[in-house]
Amino acid sequence: MGDLLFEDAETARSYQDYRPNYSGLGIEKEVLSFMGQAYEQPGNVDTIALDIGCGTGQLTRALAPLFKKMIGIDRSKSQIDVAKGVTKEKNIEYLVNVAEDLSFLQDNSIDLISTAAAVHYFEPEPFLAEVDRVLKPGGCFLVLLFAVKGIFLTSATNNDDINNKCEDIMEDIRKTTYSVFKKGSNKVISSGSYSLPDYPDRHHFQLTSKRRYDHLDEFVGFLKSLGTLKLYNEQHPEEGDQIERIKKRLRLAVATSSSTQEISPVVLNCMFNCYMYRK
Ligand SMILES: C[S@@+](CC[C@H](N)C(=O)[O-])C[C@H]1O[C@@H](n2cnc3c(N)ncnc32)[C@H](O)[C@@H]1O
Is pLDDT of 45 > 70? Predict the structure, then answer.
């Protein structure tokens, strides 16, 4: 399923432009405090990190300042193409590569492996075996998982009526996308858990990434980044375009004028559970 949802170029572009990202959330501090002082001077030591299922490089760029070299990999060429186009950092390299086969890396060679909003697409056994093989002894593994029911839409102006309508719209999006997601994703989501590595030294923290939308088309950009909505359209053509349908619902809920894109601003909140492990 991971290969179906993220391949096309429009989804990749919308992903980069309209999804919340991880900068300014303090994730670097959490990583540093768990990894230790050796990583506080990345230019002085030969450190290397790997971000798997990197998409357009949101987490890759947030963590790159901590390491001498950062590699982002993703199975989708479209995502990697966009990542290369928007990345200025000289210490980042991107590759099209799957999570389950890291044979381009040597044993015990990586200081940090990270993966954000992606681990549920990977085949657990080969993926975790590769993580264990390539991490240095003492190296760390960071996993960001969407919190259950952790994505919600709110009024940027704290309007209760809009908040209620936004919650209904988000529930609509969840139901529509989840029906596609459940069918195709691996056991991880349906069982609600992922058997992460058995490393005893671990740390858990949470963060919420936010994105504000001031115009209807920006929110439509977010809807277009949801590969599951596109797939739903393909699987249920008789039900009409879901992106148009949800756009109309949002317009009714938050439009400030009938003739323009102007809306009362809304904020998308994505809560993540973040787990760190030391090999
Ligand atoms: C929801 S996106 C997350 C992107 C980015 N990490 C973020 O946090 O915004 C999931 C990404 O995982 C990638 N993916 C899915 N299955 C994969 C696999 N087996 N190996 C590598 N990447 C995969 C998809 O192509 C997609 O870019």
Answer: yes
21, 62 in Cβ contact below 8 A?
yes
Radius of gyration (C-alpha) of the chain in whole angstroms: 19
Q: What per-residue confidence (pLDDT) applies to 195?
A: 60
pLDDT tens digits, 52-108: 999 999 999 999 999 999 999 999 999 999 999 999 999 999 999 999 999 999 999
What are the residues whose beta carbons fall under 8 Å from the beta carbon of 190, sequence distance 6 or more?
182
Task: Supply the residue whose CA is at minimum distance from atom 16 of ligand 1.
Answer: 2
Q: Where do the structural domains in the chain lie, given as residue ranges? A: 2-278
Q: Residue 12 to residues 54, 119, 221: CA-CA distances in angstroms?
A: 11, 18, 11
Ligand 1 within 6 A of CB of 121: yes
pLDDT, residue 186, reads 45
> Burial of 79 by CB count in 10 Å (0-12 exposed, 13-18 middle, 19+ buried)?
buried
Cross-strand bridge partners of residue 209: 270
Ligand 1 pocket, residue 21 CB under 6 Å: no
Query: Which residue, 138, 154, 122, 166, is CA-closest to 267?
Result: 154
For residue 5, pLDDT over 80 is answered with no
CATH code of 2-278, in short, is 3.40.50.150
* Residue that has been written with the tokens 């002894």 in this structure: 137
